[in-house]
Design a protein that fits this description.
By secondary structure, the chain is an all-alpha fold. It has one domain (2-216). The protein has helices at residues 2-39, 51-83, 89-122, 124-130, 132-166, 171-187, 197-216. The protein is elongated, with a radius of gyration of 19 Å.
Length: 217
């Protein structure tokens, strides 16, 4: 009897934990995107004059990013626990791997940006004249807006497939996830605010899971 009660409590709290982690990640990641996009120019080849004005907002964004990553990793783990024995091994592997690659490239680009800002604070003239700024800025831009977005698209596609097969979300959410994933994969960094699609999708899924969990309770 006690084991059945513990199992029932686990089934109720698991989706709730996933929803809270997903909502927390979405809010933090949206804040990071907004802070960076407002401060950093769209063209990566532009000189670093923005560093003297927008460095504080970028620093706040870089400090928020690790917490967003922790919430996202928690979200992945709880969703996999929720799927349990219904988990498809192939899509679950793609789901887990793309999520880890997304985080790895996100953190790598953030570390590169943080290094550029630190060097600018120490010797701004040397940073610009040496060409390190141009190289680091372009690498961080490509990593953030091309490769990270591709992994986010793969993550959304695999999650939508798992959601469609297991029925943890309505079908229209799964179809919307497929469309959004294709958009991210094919965007090629051409749309400056395209990264907003990913946290908004996670937020939508998380809110649905949270509401459905309370209704079931």
């Amino acid at each position: 009897m006690t084991q059945e009660m513990d199992l029932s409590r686990s089934r109720l709290t698991t989706p709730r934990a996933a929803a809270i982690a997903g909502i927390l990640f979405s809010i933090l990641y949206i804040a990071v995107i907004v802070l960076i996009r407002r401060s950093v120019p769209e063209q990566p080849e532009k000189m670093g004059s923005w560093l003297s004005m927008g460095w504080r907002e970028v620093e706040i964004a870089l400090n928020l990013l690790p917490f967003a990553g922790i919430a996202f990793l928690w979200f992945i783990g709880v969703v996999r626990d929720r799927l349990g024995e219904h988990e498809d091994r192939f899509f679950a592997t793609v789901f887990f791997g793309s999520g880890l690659l997304f985080l790895a490239m996100l953190f790598a680009s953030a570390a590169l940006a943080g290094g550029i800002m630190t060097m600018y604070g120490a010797s701004p003239a040397l940073l610009i004249a040496s060409g390190i700024y141009t190289y680091g800025r372009i690498v961080a831009y490509e990593m953030m807006n091309v490769y990270t977005l591709k992994m986010a698209g793969v993550f959304m596609m695999s999650m939508s497939t798992l959601s469609h097969r297991t029925g943890i979300t309505p079908r229209w959410m799964a179809y919307l996830g497929f469309v959004s994933a294709i958009f991210l994969i094919l965007s090629l960094g051409l749309i400056y605010w395209a990264p907003m699609v990913f946290p908004l999708y996670i937020f939508m899924i998380s809110v649905y899971i949270l509401v459905a969990n309370y209704r079931r309770k």
